[in-house]
Amino acid sequence: MNKQEVLSILDQYGLSAKKSLGQNFLCNDDVIGDILDLSELDKTTTCLEIGPGLGALSEKAVDLCGTYVAVEIDTRFSDRLHAIIEDKGGTVIYKDYLALGKDDLPDPEMAPDVILSNLPYYVMTPIMLKVMKDFPACRKMVFMVEEEALDRIFARPGTKQYGPLSILTDLFGKKRKCFNVDGGSFYPAPNTVSSVIEIVAEGNTWNPEWIGFVESAFALRRKTLVNSLSSGGKYSKESILAALKALDIKETVRSEELQPADLVKMYEILHEGKDEN
Ligand code: SAM
Questions:
Q1: How many Å lie between the centroid of ligand 1 and the Cα of residue 237?
Q2: Nearest CA to ligand 1 atom 21
Q3: Residue pair 102/118 in contact by the 8 Å Cβ criterion
Q4: Which residues line ligand 1 (CB under 6 A)?
Q5: Between vectors from CA 181 to CA 180 and to CA 183, what angle results, nearest 5°?
Q6: Which ligand 1 atom sits nearest the alpha carbon of residue 58?
């Protein structure tokens, strides 16, 4: 899809881009092709796309994969998406992804292998965290993000940007920045450069319960891990101190000093012998 096609689709359906919904439509066929190549869709793939918009990625993705489902907040796109997705056997759910429950899916047990999104930047972090929670068995995620968000996604321990997003994406799998996309590849063109990243699951060690745990470890970022984790009321100070001792970590440690693997070890000790159900 090029800029001329985007303009003509907007005109045909009487649409315009809503800035408040992060609508910057891809209009560069090379970039669209590169994202689809990266996604490695084939007839065995179940693909979930968040925010199909005018369908720059969806139009081809629906042909490439076995099962294609999209979640779009903006119902104004329904005629367009009906023509290019639903008429070809794909499904579109009109809903805020952040409010999506299992029962909204065509099959509540649906487990996408690939999750694809040119993310609406205003909700990038909550969407990334929710997909890791909702679809723990996902094999690959391909996301377009703002280049400046890479600092948070790839942050290392001890830095200001290090936190739940970098830790949890690290624990989910192997992540990689693939390439940059300039503003001119979108309509309307954003002021920032964007980047495509992939997160590929490694084995099946991921536990979505880590999300809440890591978030509470960072709830009081400036405090010690003991104060932050205990502030939620789920873990006592004594149990956290005992876990730190078992791992030979100082009592005054702050969450930002810990490696992702240390947080997992803390979680395991604190949950040892507990039936989570
Ligand atoms: N995929 C299209 C493309 O690449 O041209 C559109 C990408 S645009 C950056 C983001 C899309 O996400 C828009 O279609 C927007 O309406 C949709 N969106 C925004 N917030 C959303 C939410 N909370 N849940 C689902 N879709 C959302």
A1: 42
A2: 73
A3: no
A4: 21-26, 50-54, 56-57, 71-74, 96-98, 118, 120, 123
A5: 135
A6: 1
pLDDT at 203 (0 to 100): 81
Strands 140-146 vs 194-201: parallel, antiparallel or unpaired: antiparallel
Task: Count Cβ atoms below 10 Å from residue 101 Cβ, excluding itself.
Answer: 9
Rg over alpha carbons for the chain, rounded to the nearest Å, is 20
- Ligand 1 center from residue 119 Cα (angstroms): 6
pTM over 0.90: yes
- What's the per-residue H, E or C state across 227-238? HHHHHCCCCCHH
Taking the CA of residue 148 as centre, how many other CA atoms within 13 Å lie in the half-sphere pointing to its CB?
A: 6
pLDDT in tens, 84-131: 999 999 999 999 999 999 999 999 999 999 999 999 999 999 999 999
Q: Hey, is 190 helix, strand or coil?
A: coil
Interatomic CA distance for residues 212 and 124, integer angstroms: 17
For residue 68, is it left (φ>0), alpha (ψ between -120 and 50) or beta? beta
118: left (phi over 0), alpha (psi -120 to 50) or beta: beta
The three-class DSSP label of residue 162 is coil
143 and 195 in contact (C-beta within 8 Å)? Answer: no
CB 176 within 8 Å of CB 143 = no
From the CA of 136, how far away is ligand 1's center (Å)? 22
Q: How much is the pLDDT for 273?
A: 67
